Amino acid sequence: MDSTDQYYLGLSIAGTGEGVHAVIAAVRAEGDEIRLRQVRREWFELDGPLRQRVQELLQAPPAASATMDLATLDRDLGKALGEAGKAAIAHARLSRQKLAGAGLWGLAIGPAAPLGAAGRAAEIRLGSPAEVAAAVGLPIVSGFAQSDQAAGGAGGPLSPWVDYHLLHDVHKARVVLDLGKVATLTFLPAAGQLADTLAFDTGPGTAVLDELARRHHGQPYDRDGAIAGSGRPAAQVVADLISTPYFSQPPPATTKRSFRTDWQGRYVDRVEAAGSRAGIAGADLLATAVELTIETIVRAAAQLTQRPHEVILCGGGARNITLGIRLRDRLSPASTVAMERFDVDAASKDAFNAAALTAARLLNLPANIPQVTGARQAVRLGSITEP
To answer: Which domains does the chain have, with CATH numbers?
Structure first.
């Protein structure tokens, strides 16, 4: 492979269901090193009716999704993603010849936990790659998780391959903290190799916070953490909630997939019940949920083999000011910084991941990390849909 830049488009649906993140990344292969750089990122809101359908799906109990018209939603999301991708390319003034391909990080529905007699992990992601390919005129890579699952893995986390090539450092130990619906911690030891990378889910990221904001404040999420910032957390409620066996597990060689717990449903019921027993509600309950998320992260970080020099925040929760301030306090003396310090937009990291993993697939590079996902071997990720 030569050392010239190639460009890749990445597309993802926001975890709140409000719109599409589009990122264009430059990728340079230099021997065994893969250098990644964000060139452009954009945000496109979904139109009102489609946004409502997506949010209804995100808020529905798992069983209810079986009765929804998922085929039509898959098609319509594909069209919206394709239009966003086409606009992002036009705004960047890049010719199709300069773009090698596009990656699709669709809207996840259903469990990612082992199901069925075979005990294999499974999930569905909406956003038709055929619709996207037709709109942007590029090969589309999608279904990254399914490739890892076919190799016996959990299907994720898959961002650690991207994080390693973007952020590993000879002198600094780094933690990348992805605050999506689930909080995922990636540990990059100083002078470590790809095989030394550790990643696992610590517990709820924004899932509990978003659901409490919806149930008690009529909002899809707590914007900037303003509601939680006005409340007072109840330490005893946090202690009660964190006493479940899940949180006492040490970081294993393979990921402990927290999707096995229904963070946005039954666990929120438990949070509400604990708050009710303690006589707290409203902003105080949200503030308590913030402290729960923080405590689970701090406990996980304390078990790492090196104290991190830097903690890098990304994902939608990185925009929660209250959550960010408390993490900085609790994770000190490590420096806590946003992903933007490395010229990658924190909120659109999934789209950046999609672009980088697409590069790996089209360059025929394995991009899962077996000790992270539990796969039998490193494999190329994703299926290719031609325009």
So the answer is: 6-155+349-385 (3.30.420.40), 159-342 (3.30.420.40)
- For the chain, strand residue ranges (E) read 6-13, 19-30, 33-45, 99-105, 107-109, 114-115, 120-121, 124-126, 140-142, 174-179, 182-188, 198-204, 310-314, 335-338, 383-385
Residue in the structure block whose two tokens are 């039998």? 376
Enter the tokens of residue 146: 């399914």
Looking at residue 181, the DSSP 8-state letter turns out to be S
Coil, strand, or helix at residue 193?
coil
Instruction: Tell me the torsion sign for CA atoms 116, 246, 204, 241.
Output: positive
Written as six digits, the tokens of 126 are: 């909406």
For strand 310-314 and strand 335-338, is the pairing parallel, antiparallel, or unpaired?
parallel
Strands 120-121, 198-204: pairing is: unpaired
Instruction: Give the pLDDT band (50/70/90) at residue 1.
Output: very low
Is 0.85 surpassed by the pTM of this model?
yes
Task: Specify the amino acid at residue 145.
Answer: A
Which residues fall within 8 angstroms of residue 215, CB to CB, at 6 or more apart? 268, 272
